Amino acid sequence: MFIPLILADYVILSKICAMNDFESAKFDDELLSAYLDNELAPAERARVEAHLASDPSARQLLSELRAVSQSLKNLPAEKLETDLREAVLRRAERAMLVRDDGNSPHASHGHFTRLPFGRTKRAWFWAGTAIAAGLLLMVYPQIFDEGPRLPREVAKRDRAAIPEMHAASDALEIVAEEGLSTEPAAPSAQSPRAFRAKTVVGDAERFAGGAAGERQSTLAGAPAEAAAEGPAVTVSDGESELLVVHLNVAPAAFRGRAIDHVLERNQIEFEPQADPSSDKSIPTTSPPGEPDVDVLLLEAAPEQIMSTLADLDADRANYFGIEVDDSSTVNRRVSASKDNYFDFRQHNRGLVPIKQKLAITQGRADLRSNTPPQSDSELLVRRQLANEYQDFWGALRTDSKQGRAMRLAPPSVDGSAVDAQDMLTKNGIGYAAGASRIDSLDAPVASDDSFAFTKNRPAGESQPIARRGERLQALFLLTPGEAPAAAEPAATPPLPQEGLKKASQ
Amino acid sequence: MSDDASCDDSAVADAALIGRTLAGEPDAFGELVLRYQDRLYNSLLRVLGSAEDARDGVQDAFVQAFVKLETFRGSSAFYTWLYRIAFNQAMSHARRQRPTRSLDADRVDRGQDPVDVQPTAEARVDESERATQVHRALAELSPEFRQIIVLREIDGCKYEEIAELLELPVGTVRSRLFRARLELRDRLAPIVERNLTG
To answer: Element (H or E) spanning B176, and its range?
Structure first.
């Protein structure tokens, strides 16, 4: 048998080495590999070099290791000839399409509950929440980082709990699939994939005839716009947005919490809230003077929230300005801030310190766990809000066909109430009294399957807020304001006790 | 041969692209794909042994990264994270594909060797043959050895980076790499020997 001389030599030599000094030879050998990679500490390195100087077998081994290493490094670098972007994005969006925890009842039916729309739901949720709650300190419970998103969970559970909604969902899935086949994949930031949907506005019957009829209220006061074909409505990927609604409210209505009646009329009920005074760990910190912001968390069917908005819009005596923040607006604001990526990290943690001027652009600190509260009162507020949020968003109510609302006590930090307008402005939420009423700026539209706001955007850019059969989360921010100077005379806006709903039929 | 010696790349630029992707611009993710597809391909090629599998692997990894993008914490470099996804997928792929080691070599033989796509001019016959042999030897390694060799020799990762990627202690990286090199040497030696004897 012919054995290469070098190899034979090595075999003999290594055996000699092994016999002579088994332990240190073994140890040295590995060091040679690390030495080759320049991964040794100076002291070790010196030792190895000394060893190499004295031991030919070590030198031999080193050269062999080097040869192996070199032959690998010499492998020609392969490049893909193709540009994978298109394929990746197409597949990715399809993956988003069918991605499911398997808990949804739809998973078992193999339905497509979503159409690709981009990648954004969670980021929008948090960004919207963070910005809107620039007024608040929010500490979201841990599960948001680990488990499925809460709003989605809530939505799925509600679907499971409300069987009659499946009928509507099935119908929309057919539409969704049609849309999928007719629109070739061409994802882009500017024109998310869309399909034509007949949008009908102000069609009370259509709303009322949807699933879960007993929960419906007729959509009253909806802007009387022509029910036109199109605009193309992009369909969300199945997860509801967080709707952020800013309302400028007449002081009397603000103090009297008139909105509560509007909500209740739309079958959105307030949660019974734990009595804060029963929690001994949180001493009562009632802000002195008038609170200047009223924050409501809502969770209900989109129809209910749309109907509520319509009611509010119709009540021009009491509600001067209504501005809806949809996700694209929120996105623009967040994107405009520097250091995007870390903003999203921060937003993922849902924590926006209240006192910071740049609530959006914080430092790179991990705010969730490591940033200590600035003061004791801040800590208390955090905990209080955390409990409240957790209770509200996290509650699983098997009977929650009901729309739910919860009022957050406006926090005070260091004993002074938060200046809502100031916080809004600092967070880039421009807001002027009397500005932007629903019908002029942000008409809600409803199609067979989804709800959206068309903010005077070119066709194809309106983004759905929610789909039928889903739950919609909304954050209502009410601030007391003054009637705009050129306000039309408060003709006969009946006080919210009247049946406004009948007006638009 | 990778251009960059290190695993690590421009974290800030990646972060911006990630942020934009999460904000609703899928095209920003396309930039990330463009940025890393070749490097990832090159690595996966050595690990999986087949151009087709590697190309699929790259796509799979990017798709998975897209789907899971919001879970990326930013505590490591994006490419490291992407890498881990790719390698995890590749490893489970390799395990499924490999009843015996020779199959990998067969796949290499069947013309899926990436070296085949290169023009083998006369002057480069030796080099390409050698590369084929190296590639085959690589393919015959266990996945753990192949993985660590590729990370070190192809991707130029430092031990610490490998340790982070494979979630191993640095000491294990060091010893495993050493043993992998020994095995490669042993596999390559007989090949050399065969060539000499004809």
So the answer is: helix B170-197
Contact yes or no for B181 and A33 at CB 8 A = yes
Backbone region of residue A237 per phi and psi (left: phi > 0; alpha: psi in -120 to 50; beta: other values): alpha
Radius of gyration in angstroms for the set of CA atoms belonging to chain A, rounded to a whole number: 31
Assign B148 to helix, strand or coil. helix
Closest approach of B67 to chain A, Cα-based (Å): 6
Model pLDDT for residues B25-59, shown as the tens digit of each residue: 888 899 999 999 998 998 888 777 778 888 888 99
A472: number of CA atoms within 13 Å, CB side?
26
DSSP codes of every residue in A217-272: ---TT-------B---BPPP-S-PPEEEEEEEE-HHHHHTTHHHHHHHHTTEEEPP
Residue A223 to chain B, least CA–CA distance (Å): 29
Q: Which tens digit of pLDDT belongs to each residue from A33-78?
A: 999 999 999 999 999 999 999 989 999 999 999 999 998 888 877 7
Closest CA to B162 of B108, B87, B100, B111: B87
Asked if B63 lies within 8 A of A91 by C-beta distance, the reply is yes
Point out the residue among A37, A76, A96 whose CB comes nearest to the CB of B118.
A76
Interface contact flag, B23 A123, Cβ < 8 Å: yes
B34 to chain A: which residues are within 8 Å by CB?
83, 85
ipTM of the complex: 0.71
